[in-house]
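Consider this pair:
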Amino acid sequence: MSRTATVDRTTSETDIHVRLNLDGTGQSSVTTGIGFLDHMLTAWSKHAHFGLAISCSGDLHIDEHHSVEDSAIVLGRAFAQAVGDAAGIERFGASYVPMDETLVRSVVDLSGRPFLVWRVPALRETIGDLPVELAQHFWMSFAEHSRVTLHIECLYGTNQHHILEAVWKSCGRALAAAVKTTGRGGIPSTKGTLTA
């Protein structure tokens, strides 16, 4: 069964196309108009081994907010579609990722209940062309539209680039662990559903 999804979303603020393959090889094509976000999504795809194509044309003449938020919305919807009814997957995933002086932990439950716990410091206002405050907003929007519970915590770190890169990498690895097939079949819930 193919675990892929293609989602398009066009508004007066952004025009976004996402293609996601949960059983990919980590190959990606990412163009959001925000260089640091492109770097983060490329790392996310690589370390999750997800196939990813994302293009976003947004109103960057206003600011980066709409492009970051809407990219996360569409990626979250694509992830939810690719997971489907969640039959035969692990459901839970966790990952620790170090990056030099930084250590980040991400834990995910494909619960059908969107929630984000974010314990990540903002040590600078921007990294490249990405406002640091939008990192939290990206993952909040992703969690909401993928309908996952996501806990992200920087255990320690002093370099903002390292901290955010470890966030995207650890989230990718945690999500990859959660969608791993078990070979046992069935919905991993005593309720019998994760989508109702």
User: Anything to note?
Assistant: The radius of gyration is 16 Å. The longest strand covers residues 14-21. Residues 122 and 133 are 7 Å apart (CA to CA).
